[in-house]
Amino acid sequence: MATPGPKPGPGGANAAPAIVTASVLAGAAMLAIVGTLLPGWVGITGAPATWIPLVFYAVALVDVLVALWLWRRVQAARQSHGPVQRR
Length: 87
What we know:
The chain is mostly helical and 87 residues long. The chain has 2 helices and no strands. The two termini are 19 Å apart.
């Protein structure tokens, strides 16, 4: 009996880290957009209208750093151990 697994072809299991990284980066972009638009949507003025977007930008920056860390870690694992496989 054959074991189920990713089918060979374009993408396949090798595309999974790229998809996860792209998803994290898309989430960071959405956070930055929401942080930019939120004070205007809610009608916040004054100091909170300044620091609320900064908090969203900081969280988006952390997301970008996590995506880059994940990408580099997967690349290093591929170079040292071959293809990344699920257990």
